[in-house]
Specification:
This protein is an alpha+beta fold and 276 residues long. It is 55% helix and 11% strand.
């Protein structure tokens, strides 16, 4: 279960959870009420929540079937409740490692921590039509900049243990292996659905090459990162459309229109700040 909280306290979270079954696998909260974001904050006492099955959650964390919940859990969240589910804990860890790998493929040989965290935070927005209409264009930057320490806490140990990266913690810089061999290793460890989308992009109809053959070619391609980004967009685009349609039916047309108008207003204000 995910709670998007605006200006809410831990007590409020626990009060909300009291209305749900006690055997929740995982409950977490996110949004500007949990972690500070740059730009306007909201004073509204509003909470959106969603509920999914544990099996669907684990599937998305491991395979990135739609990158909706997996994408949210690639960013700092506040865990409200979590049971001792070994499969879930392993899937949560794998999702973070996959996010790092995908980001590596889209970054140059040397980059800053902030560059990495911006790339990671943007994975689940690749191809999201709401980033064209309805979302502030600086959304990803606003998530990352005030929360570098939280991202570092989330990914620090993964980066230190990764043999393909030199992590200069004091300087906040990283260097990765961009050789064809290094990129091939990274491509082969990407989540299954992203691998499939990349293979479809690289393998025209009728050729039917296997994934390994495709990735050997892609690993030598200077546009490898762009292809990975296209693969991410192919996952996120239909998922974001489905979620928006679901929102209309679950929240109702009136609430959806009000919510959308606020998003457009926020996007407009962000554009004015940028051009002023």
């Amino acid at each position: 279960m995910a709670l998007q909280a605006l200006q809410s306290s831990g007590v409020a979270f626990r009060r909300i959870l009291s209305h749900f079954p006690e055997d929740l696998s995982l409950a977490f909260a996110y949004g500007s009420g949990v972690y500070r974001q740059a730009g306007p904050s909201s004073n509204q006492k509003l909470i959106k929540y969603g509920v999914i099955s544990t099996s669907i959650l684990i599937e998305d964390l491991l395979n990135w079937n739609n990158l909706y919940i997996a994408g949210r859990l690639q960013k700092p969240v506040k865990i409200i409740a979590m049971n001792e589910n070994v499969l879930l804990r392993s899937a949560l860890d794998k999702n973070l490692k996959s996010a790092v790998t995908a980001a590596f493929l889209m970054l140059p040989e040397s980059f800053s921590e902030e560059d990495l965290f911006i790339e990671i935070a943007g994975l689940s927005y690749s191809g999201d039509f709401r980033m064209v209409v309805g979302e502030d264009k600086t959304k990803v930057l606003n998530i990352v900049k005030p929360n570098i320490a939280h991202f570092r806490e989330l990914y620090g140990s993964i980066l230190q243990e990764n043999p393909q990266v030199v992590y200069k913690i004091q300087q906040g810089r990283l260097e990765i292996d961009k050789s064809p061999e290094g990129q091939f290793t990274q491509l082969m460890t990407l989540p299954k659905t992203l691998q499939q989308q990349i293979n479809r992009i690289m393998d025209p109809p009728g050729r039917n090459r296997d994934v390994e053959e495709t990735f050997l070619q892609l690993a030598h391609d200077p546009d490898c990162g762009d292809v990975v980004r296209l693969g991410l967009s192919a996952i996120v685009r239909p998922s974001s459309l489905r979620q928006s349609i679901k929102g209309i039916f679950t929240a109702g047309m009136k609430k959806s229109l009000i919510y959308s108008s606020r998003k457009l207003h926020k996007m407009w204000k962000g554009w004015l700040r940028k051009t002023s």
